[in-house]
Every structure is written in structure tokens, then in C-alpha cells.
Amino acid sequence: MKKLWTLLKIDYTMALRSKFILITLILAILLAVLVNFVLPEKLNTEMNTYILDRTSNTRIATFLNAAGDEGSAIKIEVTKSEEELTSKLTKSNGAGVIFEDDKVIIVKQGYEDEATLNLMTATINLLTKKLSGVYTPTSFKYTVLEPQSTEKLPFNKFMIPPLIVLDVFLLGFMFIAAMIFQDKKEGIIKAYRISPINIFGYITSKVVINSSLSIALALIIVAATVGFHINYLHYFVIVTLSALLISSLGMLLSQFFNSLSEFMYVLIAFSLIIALPAISYFQPSFSVPFFKYIPSYPIMFEIKNIISSVQSKEIWSLSLLLAVELAGVLVLVYFTSKRALFGRRQLS
Amino acid sequence: MIEVKDLYFKYSEKDVFSIDHISFKIDKGEIFGFLGPNGAGKTTVQEILTGLLKQQGGSVLYQGKSIEEQKGDFYNKIGVSFEFPNLYGKLTGYENLKYFAGLFSVPTVDPNFLLNLVGLKDTANKRTEFYSKGMKQRAVFARSLINNPEILFLDEPVSGLDPTTAKNIKQVIQKEKEKGTTIFLTTHNMFVAEELCDKVAFINDGKIITEDTPKNLKLQYGNKSVEVEYKMNGHTQKELLFLEKKDDKSKLQNIIANHPIITMHSKEATLEEIFIKVTGRGLI
Questions:
Q1: Domains detected in chain A
Q2: Which of A188, A266, B32, B55 could bridge to A183 as Cys pair (CB 3.0-4.6 Å)?
């Protein structure tokens, strides 16, 4: 225990003097400022539709002016001339619809996705059906599959889980690699090898110190942006296991390299893999089954549940899964370190 | 205390032996000098003896127990000073020693005492990244003494140090010997070996060429010589003459009789001269 305590003190001092703690605090402030003051609570995704009625009896304009746009998925505004329609389109994010007696012309910006255009077409069809008296619904109602998640996170808070996974945990991954390279560069491992320390102590100390920085950063960000009303026990458990897992992976991979420049390719590849589940996070319809096996996938969604104060049934099963993954990685780190860092050189 | 038998090692399958079937024995409390030029295999032997390199063949016994069987406690009993200093640059000299002391399960020495011993008292609180090479080397030497080792491995302990500091370090080594510490010292500096070692082994190309006390080696291989400086035809001449050679002896008599002598010194062969004689090569 005395030896482990000594190693922890060494690694803490090294983290402090290598400015890891300072970097962590600066990053915490930057991310808190980003979430609280830079990212908007709501993204302006509202689409304006400007209508020009060139039909002979201007029935459409008359109808729309009378009905207003209440309940419509698209904000509708009737214009008086093509010049007005063009002018409004150039100033705002929207599309134009010109009704003529025999056709409908849609004027688009050019970057609308297919879903938006289909929505417009459906709205126009509905409008024409209403005008002809074929179909006259009296109201619209929206229902969702999972009522629990209806309480939508503001956009800035919605960004916290990917920020934690991509910045906070990766920081621990990079810091532990930097520490290993420092030890290799300074020949410290050779000094350890002629002392009575064990590999387990060396690994534990590095993983604990670097994970602590990630955990502290994750706690500061959520406390500064979400507040104290969430379940911090759940948050702490998930964040701690995730930070330990990712730092251990950092140690597992970095021990085979000698410098950060050699390790850069691994770092980029690892970052990309960890970031992949963010695609599903932002675009739930894009769900590749493989993503679910990347640890960052469940971590991101669970952190989202926690900061949304949604009671998740999966918190403990995910914790168990992370603990098992962590144990597996630590066993691998132990055996690879025994050979790569502490192993006695044999025939090359 | 330490018995090495038929030890060999090669760094790769295709290489020639870096250590070629060597044997030697070190008694308790003895300073054993392992002498040879750079690349002769001195550090390789030290790394095998400390367990840093895996033994490929032969045997290394510590009080009859193989190095392979040694457990963690073995490292509580040894101290190693590396040729290339390995310290935490971002820690001070004091912190480097204090934290290293925390890794041992045996009573340790006060870091300040050791830093004072090697002349680093005034810079104890300076980060070692700002130390000169010599200061780092002294700090590593001090660190090797932190656990009061029974066996001390010193790899070129005074290489690159100024004469005053080197003298200081040699005194510390001598004191360690007086305490009963067994010391394995590798060096290419024959004066250091001559001054400190009870026994020396010459190593060249991975082989031990000869092994004995410095005194016996001198008796066995050294020739008494005289270096004489004299005036001849207005010019200063210098000669090294070996008294055991008949020609040199009469030449010396002739110089003394016929030329004004400027200086004349009797010389005993140095270990370096003996090394050159037995290996046919210099020490650098």
C-alpha cells in the first residue's frame, strides 16, 4: 500500500507539473462556457414557406389568409409578387411555392433535404384537398413512441454527452499515453525495474490519476451546466467506470509506442471509433448495429438519460458491462505491460 | 556472494556473442571492477546481473540462489547507478530520491544526507531537468544508495565528472565498501579501477581476458620503466626506457653519463598499459 501511495504521489505531481491539471481546469471552464453561453438552447430549424398565388381566382391566398398557419408544421406567409417572394427567400431560411392554375412551382434554396421537400409536397396536397372539400380534418395531434423521452433536452444540454465522451474521456486517454511516453523518454521504467515495485501498482497509479482528471472534468461540466438536481450517484458511477475504461485502453495501446508522434495514428483512429456513435446520437434514424458495441454508444445515451432526469432501467446493467470490460482491459494491460514495459529483453 | 558461471548472451540470433561464456566470482564486501572499452559488454553483464536482461545461458548465483529465482525482495537489497541518468525531470533532486525511497520495504537513508554526500545539497530543490549531466549522474548515484544496498552496481560512476567531484564520489564508494557493501563497478577508466577495486577483470569483445588484483596484474604484466628528458645538441629529447631490457638499461646509463638531464621519473605500468598489452587495443 505504501508503494502504491508513493506511485500515486509521483503521478499526481507529474500530472500537476506537466500542466495536466491546469489543462483539465481550463477545458472545464471552456466547455461550461460553451454549453451555457455559446450553444443556443434551441436551434432555429423552423422553415418558412412563402406563397405566391397566381391562380385566376386567388382562392389559395384567400384560404390561407383566412386560415392562418396555426397547427401547420411549416410557417406559411402569402406574398403579393414574385419580387417579394424572391426577396424574402434570400433573406431567410425557407422555400417558395408559386401556385398557377395548372401547376405548382416550388422555389428552393438548394440545400433542403428530401424529408423537408416531401413535407412541403404533402402540405400542398392537403391544402388542395381541403380546398376541393375532399378531406377536411379538424385538428392535428402528435404522438411519440417513448413518452418518457418527450421532455426534450435543450440543444446546449443535448450536446453535453458527446462533449463528455469525445473531449473528457479522450483527455484521459491522451494524458495516460503522454505519461507513459514521458516515463520511457526519461528511462524511469528502467529505474522502476530495479526497485521492488510491482506492475499492478504502476498500472493502477497511472490509470487512477488520469481517470481522476476525466472524472473531475465531467463532474465540473455537468454541475456548471445542468445543476445539482440530477442523480449524481448514477452519473458518478457511469463517468468513473467510463473514465477508468478509456484510460486503461490508453495505457494498453500507448505502451507499444515511444512517442506521441508515433502514437498519433492510433490516437486518431481511436478518436474516430469513439466518435462514431455520435452519428446515431444526433441522427437516431442512422443506427448501425455495430455502433452499439462501441463503449461510447451506451455511455453517451446513458449520460443523456441522467442529465434529462429520465429514470433508466439500464444504468446498473450498463455499469456491470463497463466493469466487465474494464476488468478485461486491465488484465490485458497487466500482461502486455509485463512484456512491453517491465519485460526482460530477450533475443530480438 | 555473487558467482557467475559460463554466462553468455547475444542480442539477436544472427549476432555474435555480446557476452561470450564468462565466469567470475565476487566476495562479500569486495569492489569488483569490470574493465573494458566501450562496447566490450560491461553494461550487458550488469544488466543481466540486475535482472534487466534475461539470462540466456550460464548461471548467476547470489549467495547460491539463481537470479531467475530471486523475488521482489532482491531489489530491496541492491542499488543500481546507471551510466545514463534516468530521473523524473519534472521532480526536484530531493523529490526524486524521496519518492524512490517510498518504493522500498526496507529502512531508507535520508535523501538530504545523500544529496549532501554527492554535493547536491544546494540544488536539492531544483528540478532535475535543469541539472547538468554530471549533476544528474550524481543524483542517480545518490539514488542507488537510498535503500542501504547490500550489493551496489555502478556503471561508469565517475565518467564525465570533474576531478574534484569524481574524487568525492570515489570516497563515497570507498566508504560503502568499508560498510561491507559488495560493489560491482564497470568502467573504462583504469585509474578509477586501480584506485578503488580489490579485484579487476578485463573484458574485451564479450570475453574476460584476465582477472586478478590490480597489484598482481602489475606484477604479472607490468615492466618498470623510466621516463627521461635530456638535452642533446641543444634540443630537448624524451625517452621511455624499460629497465628489464638490456638495451634500454645501457641507453639510460649512456644518457646519464653524456647528456644534461632535465627530468627523470621512474614509472610503474598502469592498468591501461597492461590492458593494451593483453588485448592489443586501447580503452576508448
A1: 2-40+154-340 (no CATH), 48-147 (3.40.50)
A2: A188
Query: What is the average per-residue pLDDT within B240-259?
Result: 86
What are the pLDDT digits (tens) for B45-77?
A: 999 998 888 888 888 999 888 887 877 788 999
Question: pLDDT band at A150, cuts 50/70/90?
Answer: very low
Which one of B53, B88, B102 has the shortest CB-CB distance to A344? Answer: B53
The amino acid present at B256, given as its one-letter code, is I
Interface residue of B66, B75, B86 to substitute, partner A, most A CBs within 10 Å: B86
Which of A18, A347, A348 to mutate to test binding with chain B, by most B CBs within 10 Å of its CB? A347
Q: Which of A265, A234, A266, A272 is nearest to A249 (CA)?
A: A266
3-class SS of residue B88: coil
- A9/B102 Cβ within 8 A: yes
Per the CB < 8 A criterion, the answer to whether A201 and A1 are in contact is: no
The reply to whether A1 touches chain B by the CB within 8 Å rule is no
The string over A183-221, giving b where at least 16 C-beta atoms fall within 10 Å of a residue's C-beta and e elsewhere, is bbebebbbbbbbbbbebebbbbbbbbbbbbbbbbbbbbb
**Which residues of chain B does A345 touch, with a Cβ-Cβ cutoff of 8 Å?**
52-54
Rama region for B111: left / alpha / beta (φ>0; ψ in -120 to 50; rest): alpha
Beta-carbon separation of A186 and B52 below 8 A: no
Q: CA-CA distance, A66 to B13, in Å (whole number)?
A: 92
Q: At what angle do helices B133-144 and B163-178 cross, to 10 degrees?
A: 0
How does residue A125 score in pLDDT terms, banded at 50, 70 and 90? Answer: confident
Q: What is the ipTM of this complex?
A: 0.81
d(CA B139, CA B129): 12
Radius of gyration of chain A (CA): 28
Sign, Cα dihedral of A176, A177, A179, A184: positive
Residue ranges of domains in chain B, CATH in brackets:
2-219 (3.40.50.300), 223-267 (no CATH)
CA atoms within 13 A on the CB side of B28: 8
Question: Checking DSSP bridges between strand B151-155 and strand B78-81, what pairing results, if any?
Answer: parallel
Q: Give the C-alpha separation, A246 to A283, whole Å.
A: 25
In 3D space, the residue among A234, A209, A201, A203 whose CA is nearest the CA of residue A309 turns out to be A234
d(CA A273, CA A291): 9
